[in-house]
């Protein structure tokens, strides 16, 4: 059971329907911050020639059905009432269609995001009518951590979409190095039904001074980079203590030579 699963499980057992939305929001905040990536995601990266291919299980190929309801009431008061009832206000738009205002079931929607990430593709059942949609934006309250609103984008099978995908940094760089992740996401274009859940940049024994840019990252087949190729994703630097030790050793050698 992952950290996110434990948080949501505890919320389901301990909270009422009105408070559950806060726990779900906190779960999504954690997910957006990248806490659900590989345990080594903060440690290191391997230069692109040494990266392993991304496995098929990292590609979201399945859609999840979600029964939703249309809503006529709008405004802050209506949104607060919806959240107390365990519903998430949302709007569906795209492909020249008129915006459709919806209520999403909070528990089921949180489960979709936990399973598929923030680029989840959902097969919406809108009161009996099916519509494929991409989770475009999840707005979370900055202090209380509940989901305030969701934007859903109408998509069609076979079309390409541009999304931001989380970068997961794995592995241990060479001793005496400090790995700094400068970009937590990169923007790519992919088939709507084959969006990578994350992009792995793997470091094992990488030396200090290595810089990995977006253009160096290996992408799955059918996925193309739309971020600036020069975007710095990961930098492997010399650790401060190692640099200080080297400087002290150099000074010692200089002193001995002077004698």
From TrEMBL:
Assembly state and interactors?
Part of the 50S ribosomal subunit; part of the 5S rRNA/L5/L18/L25 subcomplex. Contacts the 5S rRNA. Binds to the 5S rRNA independently of L5 and L18.
Task: Give the record's keywords alphabetically.
Answer: Ribonucleoprotein, Ribosomal protein, RNA-binding, rRNA-binding
Q: Which GO terms describe its molecular function?
A: 5S rRNA binding; structural constituent of ribosome
Which positions are tagged coiled coil? Answer: none
Please state what the protein is called: Large ribosomal subunit protein bL25
Asked if the record carries the keyword Transferase, the reply is no
Q: Which InterPro entries match?
A: Rbsml_bL25/Gln-tRNA_synth_N (IPR020056), Ribosomal_bL25/Gln-tRNA_synth (IPR011035), Ribosomal_bL25_b-dom (IPR020057), Ribosomal_bL25_C (IPR037121), Ribosomal_bL25_long (IPR001021), Ribosomal_L25_dom (IPR029751), Ribosomal_uL5_bac-type (IPR020930)
- Its domain of life reads Bacteria
Residue span, Large ribosomal subunit protein bL25 beta domain? 160-238
Q: Where is the Large ribosomal subunit protein bL25 L25 domain?
A: 66-152
A single GO CC term for this protein reads: cytosolic large ribosomal subunit
Q: List the CDD domains.
A: Ribosomal_L25_TL5_CTC (cd00495)
Q: Which family does it belong to?
A: Belongs to the bacterial ribosomal protein bL25 family. CTC subfamily.
Q: Which Pfam families match?
A: Ribosomal_L25p (PF01386), Ribosomal_TL5_C (PF14693)
Per the UniProt record, the source organism is: Gordonia amarae NBRC 15530
One Gene Ontology term of the biological-process aspect is: translation
User: Would I find Signal among this entry's keywords?
Assistant: no
* Function field: This is one of the proteins that binds to the 5S RNA in the ribosome where it forms part of the central protuberance.
């Amino acid at each position: 059971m992952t950290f996110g699963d434990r948080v949501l499980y505890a919320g389901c057992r301990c909270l009422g329907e009105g408070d559950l939305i806060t726990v779900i929001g906190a779960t999504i905040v954690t997910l957006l911050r990248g806490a659900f990536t590989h345990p080594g995601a903060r440690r290191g990266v391997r230069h692109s020639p040494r990266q392993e291919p991304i496995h098929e299980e990292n590609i979201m190929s399945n859609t999840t059905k979600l029964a939703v309801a249309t809503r006529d009431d709008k405004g802050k008061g209506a949104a607060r009432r919806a959240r107390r009832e365990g519903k998430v206000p949302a709007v569906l738009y795209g492909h020249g269609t008129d915006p459709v205002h919806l209520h999403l079931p909070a528990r089921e929607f949180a489960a979709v995001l936990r399973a598929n990430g923030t680029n989840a593709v959902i097969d919406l059942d809108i009161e009996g009518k099916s519509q494929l949609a991409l989770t475009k934006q999840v707005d979370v309250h900055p202090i209380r951590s509940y989901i305030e609103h969701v934007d859903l984008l109408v998509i069609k099978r076979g079309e390409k979409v541009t999304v931001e995908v989380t970068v997961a940094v794995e592995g241990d760089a060479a001793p005496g190095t400090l790995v700094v992740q400068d970009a937590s996401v990169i923007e790519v274009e992919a088939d709507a039904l084959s969006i990578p859940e994350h992009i792995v940049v793997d470091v094992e024994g990488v030396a200090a001074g290595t810089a990995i840019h977006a253009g160096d990252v290996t992408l799955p087949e059918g996925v193309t980079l739309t971020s600036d190729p020069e975007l710095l994703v990961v930098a492997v630097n010399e650790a401060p203590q190692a640099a200080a030790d080297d400087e002290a050793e150099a000074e010692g050698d200089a002193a001995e030579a002077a004698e």
